[in-house]
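re: the backbone from monday

yeah here it is again, tokenized this time
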């Protein structure tokens, strides 16, 4: 228990409205990459808002059948437990999230590598076409959170 309980952080209004996670953006910089806490890394709330935006259409335990992937739920209730220190299904990938080590985290590899060791780059397209990769800001947010130890 690291002092900070993410659960309590005002759960209101964070349903992927498009506003930067964490709310009232004072500096105008897209929050998240550095996170509200200064040098402590991005918060999991900032990471979750990316999942809410780009991933949960498929990564939801209640959705069956391709292209869904219920074995890795990324909904707010389940994502942290499904990622951190959990072995990847695609075993070439090792561990989904290795706290403190973004480079060896399969989550990062699946988002950054054009051809991951198995399957497609995420987010993958629904049926045909291509899906837009995450932005550099979003990738930096996820890396920062992992680097900081992947706190809840
Ligand atoms: C259109 C549906 C779809 C979307 C959107 C999507 N995924 Fe996936 N995801 C899948 C499917 C299907 C697989 C398994 C096949 C593969 O790897 O291509 C998968 C596999 C993965 C894996 C590997 C899991 C393991 O344990 O081997 C990770 C990590 C992942 N997705 C993360 C994400 C993230 C993060 C996002 C959002 C940025 C995302 N995905 C968006 C369908 C999707």
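seq for it, each position gets an aa:
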């Amino acid at each position: 228990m690291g002092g900070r309980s993410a659960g309590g952080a005002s759960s209101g209004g964070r349903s992927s409205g498009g506003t930067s996670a964490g709310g009232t953006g004072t500096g105008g910089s897209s929050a998240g990459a550095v996170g509200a806490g200064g040098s402590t890394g991005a918060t999991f709330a900032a990471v979750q808002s990316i999942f809410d935006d780009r991933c949960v259409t498929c990564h939801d335990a209640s959705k069956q059948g391709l292209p869904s992937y219920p074995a890795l739920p990324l909904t707010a209730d389940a994502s942290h437990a499904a990622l951190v220190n959990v072995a990847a299904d695609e075993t070439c990938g090792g561990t989904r999230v290795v706290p403190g080590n973004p480079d060896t985290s399969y989550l990062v590899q699946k988002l950054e590598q054009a051809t991951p060791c198995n399957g497609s780059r995420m987010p993958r397209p629904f049926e045909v076409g291509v899906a837009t990769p995450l932005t550099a800001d979003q990738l930096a947010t996820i890396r920062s959170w992992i680097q900081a130890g992947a706190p809840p």
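The radius of gyration is 15 Å. Residues 1-38 have pLDDT under 50 and may be disordered.
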